Amino acid sequence: MTVRPEPADKSWIALTDAGRGILDAAAADPATVLLALDFDGTLAPIVDDPAASTMAQESREAMSRMDGKLATMAIVTGREVAAVRRMTAVDKLPGLEHLVVLGQYGVERYDAVSGALRDPEVPEAVRIAKGQLEDLAEELGREDPRDRGCWIEDKGRAIALHTRRAVDPAHALATAAPRARMIATDLQLHCEDGRNIIELKSAVTTKAQALRELIDEVEPQILIMCGDDLGDVPALDVVAGWINAGHPGARVVSFSGEQPSMADHADIICDQTEGISAFLEALADRVCTEM
Ligand SMILES: O=P(O)(O)OC[C@H]1O[C@H](O[C@H]2O[C@H](CO)[C@@H](O)[C@H](O)[C@H]2O)[C@H](O)[C@@H](O)[C@@H]1O
């Protein structure tokens, strides 16, 4: 069994040479850094109701300090762009004028600096899936009291079945996931697994493609991706390939016991969203003072 050092409360710790070297590398050449950040569980603490999520203020402040100083700073998320714009207050409060948001695993895009929005049409199959997942949530509760409390989040181009509010969230997810996968197969949709959630989405796009879109566009020298969940692994793997090719980079994981396998994808491990805030503050300190 691999024994990993654990970060102190609300802090972070580097596990690899890549992780140990990332602040020096970023401080030496901030304008070549591509910083990609997941939203839920990374910038925003996990809560029962996704509509009530709020971004950690410390992370927003650290990001604001770096805004415009890096090659690009982007939120790469499973959420809709509209939700992230609301929850970051990117259009209302100062500080994130250069932020890029890649939403719904990269299908949607918003560039704060220009106001450009990419928002393609939603396929009919997703609307059909919504009805079938609602029926499934009801059936689950009728069949087993442990699975009562599942609910459906409608994100337009994706529909998510949430089990966090179920009587036994892990049991409900284990029961729901294979049945949700069958619905996805029938409707030729794609599944995305996460923390007490299974999503059915129209596009096969993953966060790996979203991150590659930014890499191709920005041509960074230094690549940092922060995430917490299985949906982030494809993008973290892109960073692993980047590091293996000899470039400076780091996979920064917001770690919680809910998804322990994420430790296997980390160069830096953080104590949940507070640890991410501490890492972003350290990055902002180095990037801003040494310019
Ligand atoms: O890519 P992300 O930014 O991590 O978004 C992935 C999904 O996150 C949301 O669900 C998660 O956060 C909820 C609020 O804290 C929590 O209740 C749920 O259990 C988590 O799975 C969101 O609701 C989804 O739409 C996102 O796709």
Describe this structure in words.
By secondary structure, the chain is of the alpha/beta class. It is built from 8 helices and 13 strands. The chain has helices at residues 17-28, 57-66, 81-88, 124-143, 169-186, 207-218, 233-244, 272-289, and strands at residues 12-14, 33-37, 72-76, 100-103, 108-111, 116-118, 151-154, 158-162, 190-194, 197-201, 222-227, 249-255, 268-271. A 9-stranded mixed β-sheet has the order 1-13-12-11-2-3-4-5-6, sandwiched between helices. A 4-stranded antiparallel β-sheet has the order 7-8-10-9, covered by helices on one side. Strand 3, helix 3 and strand 4 form a beta-alpha-beta unit. It is globular. The N and C termini lie far apart (42 Å). Bound molecules: ligand L263DTV3. Ligand L263DTV3 is lined by residues 38-41, 46-48, 50, 53, 77-79, 153, 155, 160, 162, 164, 194-197, 199, 229, 231. One of its GO terms (biological process) is trehalose biosynthetic process. It comes from Cutibacterium modestum.
Provide keyphrases for this structure:
alpha/beta; nine-stranded mixed beta sheet; four-stranded antiparallel beta sheet; 8 helices; binds ligand L263DTV3
The stretches of 5 or more residues where confidence is low (pLDDT under 50) are none
**Sheet with the most strands?**
9 strands, mixed
Bound molecules: ligand L263DTV3
Span between N and C termini? Answer: 42 Å
> Gyration radius, to the nearest Å?
19 Å
Within the largest sheet, what's the order of strands?
1-13-12-11-2-3-4-5-6
Approximate shape: globular
The residue-averaged pLDDT reads 96
Going by helix content, strand content and strand pairing, the class is alpha/beta
Q: Name the beta content range.
A: 15-25%
Number of strands: 13
Helix content: 25-40%
Order of helices and strands: EHEHEHEEEHEEHEEHEHEEH
Tally of individual helices: 8
Catalytic activity: alpha,alpha-trehalose 6-phosphate + H2O = alpha,alpha-trehalose + phosphate
EC number: 3.1.3.12
Keywords: Hydrolase, Magnesium, Metal-binding
Protein name: Trehalose 6-phosphate phosphatase
